[in-house]
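Course exercise 7: structure representation. Students receive a sequence record and must write out the corresponding structure in token form. The form below is the worked example handed out in class, using Glutathione S-transferase kappa (226 residues). Read each field label carefully; the graders check that inputs and outputs are placed in the correct fields and that the protein name is recorded exactly as given.

STUDENT ID: A-19
EXERCISE PROTEIN: Glutathione S-transferase kappa
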Amino acid sequence: MSASKILVELFYDVVSPYSWIGFEVLSRYRNVWDIDLKLRPAFLGGVMHGSGNKPPGLVPNKFLYMTKDLQRLASYCKVPIQAPSNPFEAMFEKGSLSAMRFVTAVELHSPELTEQVSRELWRRIWSKDQDITTPESLQEAGEKAGLPADQLQRLLGLAVSQEVKEKLKLVTQEALNHKAFGFPLIVAHVDGRPEIFFGSDRFELLAHLLGEKWLGPVPQETGSKL
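STUDENT ANSWER:
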């Protein structure tokens, strides 16, 4: 990392559609703002439990609002989100523990592919209404992300190893140490202090803190480069 670049960490879980929006927008700004973006795959279920939070989707009126809000935000940010046919089952019954262990294995042993593997898992659950819990589902996501067959099999095996389980717990605890109560959690390290932003709608404030310009969710479309 360049000494001039500001470290920005993104804690996320592929079960969270708002995390997908935050992930795509920050990925677009990686070469626009003077930042070093570090992806931090973690387990949202652990953060919810550890912080004592409850999913807002369990409140009927909030669920109705979030469904519409997510559609508007996805359209604005140009992220192809299409809610699964049974969001409650996908998010709360099936969950994402096996998926995030797989992403953690990729991050530990093939970090250059973390971004694409994460994106393929989001596409499965939040665009194609497909499973992300079975080994077959994880294998298909890995194949579409470009993992060679032998490397993919090794990573699928590592996903159930104690090393990976402990790493996922550690990163999830790091998010809790930053007082996380949900995802996405953005941590910008400015002047030796971590500055915390929750959600995928605080980019104007993040830009202000970084001394950068917010050019909208798709900065390339402005024709401007900083």
